[in-house]
Design brief:
168 residues, mainly alpha, Four Helix Bundle (Hemerythrin (Met), subunit A), 2 strands
Length: 168
């Protein structure tokens, strides 16, 4: 039995982005209740050479929208990276979920062999759709979503595996 490219992408991205949005709410509540300046969590890092929490969330959203757009053969929407608060990050997540849910299933299904070109700075890569999704986009997305979770957990936000996994 095969799995559709849509089933392997949109629902997975939606599940983790939804849980990330809920984790953001818990982090904001944590900061408020403990009188922690929100910027302390938003700018927290696991290690000095890693991106801060808010950038991890932005990148996770970027991989979700980018992967789904490329698989559907549509232009990747551009988001400004201007989020300064938990509310701003939740809005970015909501916008990302709305975008990926707007893509017709039949535009993503059948994209296994579609040529996908990506570039980051001077580096560019070409993949087939299936390899792009399973070996590049999903692992990148999960890395940044997991790192965002780990930053908050490391800083005392009371979240666990069920919070990360969300509802499925």
């Amino acid at each position: 039995m095969t799995i559709s490219m849509y089933a392997a992408s949109v629902p997975v991205f939606r599940q983790i982005l939804t849980s990330l949005g809920e984790i953001l709410t818990k982090a904001e509540t944590h900061a408020t209740e403990r009188k922690i300046e929100p910027a302390a969590l938003l700018q927290a890092r696991l290690y000095p050479d890693m991106f801060a929490f808010s950038r991890q969330v932005q990148i996770a959203a970027d991989f979700a929208k980018g992967a789904c757009a490329r698989l559907a053969g549509v232009e990747v929407p551009k988001y400004e990276d201007t989020e300064q608060s938990f509310a701003d990050l939740r809005a970015r997540i909501a916008k990302t979920i709305a975008f990926i849910e707007s893509l017709p299933k039949n535009q993503i299904d059948g994209s296994e062999a579609r040529e996908i070109n990506t570039s980051a700075g001077p580096n560019s890569k070409t993949f087939t759709g299936q390899v792009y999704l399973t070996h590049y986009a999903l692992p990148q997305f999960m890395f940044h979503a997991t790192t965002a979770y780990a930053i908050l957990r490391h800083n005392g936000v009371e979240i666990g595996k069920r919070d990360f996994m969300g509802k499925f």
